[in-house]
Amino acid sequence: MPALLRPHLPRLPLARRSDLADDRLDPQSRAAAAYVLARCAVALVAVITLAMSAGSRGADLVPAVAAHVAFAIAALLAVLVVLAADDAARRRWVRALVVTDVLGFAAYNIAFGSVAGAGSLATVSVLLAGPLLWSWRGLAVTAVPVGVVATLWPQRDPLGHTSGAWEVWLLVILLAVPAAAVSALVRRGSMRLAHAEEQFRTAFDDASSGMALLARDGRILRANPAMHALLGTSELPGAWLHQYAVEPAALQASLAGLSPQQRASRFEVEVRGVDARTRVASVVASAICSDGAVRRVLLQAEDVTERRRLQDRLSFEATHDSLTGLANQRVLHDRLGAALADQRPAGILFVDLDRFKLVNDSLGHAAGDRLLMSAAQRLQDCVRPCDLVARLGGDEFVILCDAPDASGDVDAAAVAQRVVLALRPPYVTDDGILSATGSVGVAVAVPGTTVGTLIRDADTAMYAAKSGGGNRAVVFNDGLRADVVRRHALESGLRDALRDDGVTVAYQPVVDEAGRLVAAEALLRWTFQGAPANPAEVIAIAEQSELIADVGLHVLRRALLDSAAWPEDVRLHVNVSAHQLDEGFAAALRDVLRETGSHPERLCLELTETAMRDDVDGLVGKLEQIRALGVRLAIDDFGVGNASLTYLARLPVQDLKIDRSFISGLPHDAGSTAIVSGVVAMARAYGMQIIAEGVETREQDLACVRLGCLQRQGYLHHRPMSAEALLEVLARPGHGDLPQPRAAGEVRAGR
Ligand code: C2E
Ligand code: MG
Ligand code: MG
């Protein structure tokens, strides 16, 4: 088992300051070893001297001097040993070593006093004793006995002189003073060291951030109270830091990265204390190095649990949908981008709930939200862990079918089928049994696909699924691609046509019960690639490409200019897309009215019911701004949209155009008859004027009049026509309300 993961070791006492130093042989031990070696050399010299002492007296002098020199070297080394010692325990055994040696040497000298003499003995003793015992007292306890011994047993040197006691005492005095001075210096250095150590301890213990001193293997040698609080325990020294990490391997890797070159590292680590609470600590680890290696590690740890929690929450909110908890568009783009960059197989499912708006409108947003949450859960249940479900907003979801690696398989079409089936069963909720099936568009990445094109292709396929009736999945194919290509061509063609004044306007009259032309509706006309384009398709493309504002203003300006030539009592109807109704629309309208010198009362703007999809309060505000200019408002194609009748009462509209689909059923279809008469009654109740759209036969026309719908518009009366042709019609007496199946100047729209 690796040393760092070992569960436990016997506890150590508090680490000392010397723990900061090298683990290997420390300086004082090294000096002690040197002393022992030197002392061996001295012993050797002494033995040699003894052996030679049998020779002549002159020859005896040489080994005696050599012995003196050797004693001096030994003494010097002993002093070095003591000076180098800064640790109480080590100093003690070094002292013991030296004292034992000195006493042994003294005994040896007394026994064989003929060689070294009392002088040498005193020299060595004094030199050692002062620093050794750090005080004058040290001198007393060693030098004085040596002097006494020398006095009682005068020694004879190799030349035959007997060393007197006074010589010894002189030597003691001469050597004792410098030795004591050295001792004082050492003592002061030692106190300074103790002071620094105390400061270090205080800073360490009182630090508000957690501090710990670690051995290289992660063992905690010392920890301050803040570190104990962070780890929820009071028994840290001796334990391994890693046993508190939620991911020990990660912590180990962070610490292993420290080296003499990389002396500090910052990282965050999740720790679980003895109290089982998980906290996040921001750690600065500093390596304490010596001899080119990391010996200890000093940790400073800050409890950043709260900050991390806040950060996590913020980053979750930035990347997730608050209602469903699903990933948001940003995450989707990032993940899909990464999958495409790695050339992993990837598929996109664009999911839109069918008739979700009904739920929202009829039961309120809270019910809609609950439905969305349930649908999101069903989507989650359909996918594998490596897939991603994201919510783009509203009832639109995107599923990324991701493969774990480049050889993986994403059967996006199969997932799409699962999704359709999963969304099919009704939802049993407190609001009742609700139904919102799903339309799913599938697009699979091919080499060169970008994030944008893949999502767009899936969106296109989803629209195909929706137009096929919903509750199904459609895989993006070449046909849909051709549609997209055509849409692009239409879009750029329309842009050019707007610039080159290629977009024209046709007018379809509205007649009253006497057949008099009372209004004319402006309808966009554009010839694209040699054929008339379908206005509804053009408008849809303009809406998708943000061209709608330009298109709308172009038609409005043209129609206002043309209508200047009409009799004053003939109204101008202009269609307005919901996408045009932004904050600036009323101001733009006012400018165009001013610019063309038109009377606002003659203008009626037609809005389809789809404009009421968004928030009604906002819509009412915008419509009131338009009304404030004096412009009339009409609801177009009434009956086919989703607007509830309650909306109607709140909208400031004056006209209601009943959709062609109801008129075409007249007079024989009882349902259509009932609806038309009901709408007429309701419109009367709200004081609105009714216009029947798409009247094609005389029977329908008569039925409309009979049911109270007096203003009619349709091929029976007039087809859309050019501005000039309309002027001709207006010039006829009574505005010539005659059936004109193919009137001269008719301007037909493409289908
Ligand atoms: P809409 O506003 O409901 O216009 C009436 C549509 O019904 C016109 O089609 C018209 O040609 C057609 N129509 C009129 N009478 C009859 C009839 O008796 N039988 C049949 N089968 N059709 C009849 P068009 O011109 O193709 O316009 C289609 C739609 O395009 C318009 O429906 C309107 O929603 C939109 N549109 C046209 N021009 C504009 C415009 O300038 N701006 C906006 N926003 N939408 C426009
Ligand atoms: Mg219209
Ligand atoms: Mg209409």
Q: Would you kindly provide a written description of the structure presented here, covering whatever features stand out?
A:
- The chain has four domains: 12-201, no CATH class; 208-303, 2-Layer Sandwich (Beta-Lactamase), CATH 3.30.450.20; 314-476, Alpha-Beta Plaits; 488-735, TIM Barrel (Alpha-Beta Barrel), CATH 3.20.20.450.
- The chain is elongated, with a radius of gyration of 51 Å.
- It is of the alpha/beta class and 751 residues long.
- It has 24 helices and 24 strands.
- The structure holds ligand C2E and magnesium ion (2 copies).
- Ligand C2E binds next to strand 16, helix 16, helix 17, strand 19 and strand 21.
Entry summary:
It contains 24 helices and 24 strands. With about 750 residues, the chain is of the alpha/beta class.
